[in-house]
Design goal:
ten-stranded mixed sheet; alpha/beta
């Protein structure tokens, strides 16, 4: 189901059933509706930590899809990944129930709220988590819906009693055009989701329309070619504030120190402030600078904004630390687009010191692999000391003839160290056999590879002959 931009949303939802409730965007919306007192159920194709978390919140989650699971629902919420032949969607249509795209359910939640929206081809989940946690840490009882778990909260969303509401605005299906934010932050604009958009011009058109929906201000990254081009298209829109290390940026990132955590200084209108995050990486510092820009637009001083962002503990699956065994550190990251892959590997390099970065990568989507095989190959050739490649995770897509992980492998630079192992047991064995004290093992995918982490840690313990205790 595709979103219908601008369609009036119903006044009442009644009982709500989510098809694909454990999805990154869907789960947060379901949790907020439950917090608001609505009766909420959901279903998903497989059990997961997210599904378990929703059950703990009092939301029944069915595994598998069956028409009977719609139950007494008045409204059914779906994402663009739900296909027309889904039995629960077919049941909802046959009973003439209210059927909402997830973005419409989010619009329903945000009625009467002042919305701060974060978008971008990459970095929006982390930036949204930074913004939401900074406002909450500053004493605001804000609401939020993010596409990933905010580590400090342990969940991806909350209702909140404040007028401010923070959202991650997803561009993948143009659904972000239905929002009416006060302040918009756009981290970057790059070719992605080409299976939906077709070309880069269509992506620019969508981001321009989204930015023009801002009533208060637009915060754009001055370091990104895509957002610099977008700025040239925004005559007559809300005032634009740029951020980054670029000398022409309004809010400048200066004097950055990288290591286990990122510490940096920001400069704006002659004032300076220092900020230190609880996470590493140049990209995290850049995103934090943009968040400080949003906080300025929300009325904070530069010093207060930098202090509120300081100490940020990350978002789950964004270079998330999972343990150290035998001197080997294990991290997981959701990177899947070449730009994200390169950034995650850069962060790993800043943390590993003199050790090696060993990456386990599961390509995401047949179309992305087809379009971006060379860029993915370049990222791993230059950023990873050794990469173990797995099969493509197709997600919402059917296989495309001739599109396999081999498209990436055959484009790797000569001399690149890599292996292809689609079997998870085999991939874990290869990783732990190669890893030495001081190294990092980084699992990387936006598919289901994150589920391999416990198996990987167990394989390392078995390899080292240590007790089966906590990592």
């Amino acid at each position: 189901m595709k979103p219908e931009i601008g369609r009036p949303i119903p006044q009442e939802l009644g009982s709500v059933h989510f098809i694909g409730v454990a999805g990154s965007g869907m789960s947060g919306i379901a949790r907020v509706l439950k917090e608001k007192g609505l009766s909420v159920t959901g279903s998903d194709r497989a059990d997961s930590e997210v599904a378990a978390s929703l059950r703990d919140a009092g939301i029944p989650v069915f595994i598998g899809h069956d028409a009977t699971q719609v139950g007494p629902a008045d409204t059914v919420v779906v994402s663009s990944a739900v296909r027309d032949n889904n039995p629960e969607l077919m049941e909802a249509k046959s009973r003439a129930l209210q059927i909402l795209h997830r973005s419409e359910a989010l619009r329903w939640i945000m009625q009467s709220k002042t919305v701060l929206a974060v978008a971008g081809s990459h970095g929006k989940t982390t930036s949204t988590a930074m913004l939401a946690s900074a406002l909450y840490r500053s004493g605001r009882d804000i609401g939020a819906v993010n596409g990933g778990v905010i580590s400090e909260w342990g969940v991806s969303s909350r209702w909140g009693g404040d007028d401010l509401f923070v959202i991650e605005a997803d561009e993948s299906d143009r659904s972000f055009l239905g929002y009416e934010p006060s302040v918009v932050m756009i981290t970057n604009v790059a070719p992605d989701h080409l299976d939906f958009y077709g070309n880069l011009d269509a992506i620019y058109d969508a981001f321009e329309a989204f930015a023009r929906n801002a009533s208060g201000a637009i915060v754009l990254c001055a370091d990104d070619e895509g957002t610099r081009h977008l700025a040239t298209r925004l005559a007559g829109a809300a005032p634009v504030i740029t951020y980054g290390s670029d000398a022409k940026a309004d809010l400048r990132l200066v004097d950055i120190h990288l290591g286990a955590t990122a510490r940096f200084e920001v400069s704006y209108l002659g004032e300076k402030a220092t900020c230190e995050l609880g996470v590493p990486g140049r990209l995290n510092a850049l995103n934090a600078t943009g968040v400080i820009g949003v906080l300025l637009c929300a009325g904070m001083s530069l010093a207060a904004a930098a202090a509120a962002v300081g100490g940020f503990q990350g978002a789950d699956r964004r270079f998330q630390f999972h343990g150290e065994i035998g001197g080997v550190r294990f991290f997981d990251d959701h990177a899947h687009h070449p730009t994200e892959v390169a950034a995650a590997l850069e962060t790993a390099r800043s943390v590993v010191g003199e050790g090696k970065v060993i990456t386990m990568f599961q390509p995401h989507l047949y179309s992305r692999t087809q379009y971006m095989a060379q860029e993915l190959a370049d990222a791993f050739s230059h950023g990873s000391d050794h990469t173990i490649f797995l099969d493509i995770f197709g997600s919402r897509e059917d296989p495309i003839e001739g599109v396999t992980t081999a498209l990436i492998l055959e484009r790797l630079a000569p001399g690149t160290s890599y292996e292809f192992e689609p079997d998870w047991d085999g991939a874990c064995a290869l990783a732990v056999a190669r890893a030495e004290p001081g190294d990092i093992v980084l699992t990387m995918s936006t598919g289901d590879l994150y589920q391999i982490v416990p198996q990987l840690l167990q394989a390392k313990k078995a390899h080292d002959g240590v007790d089966d205790g906590p990592a």
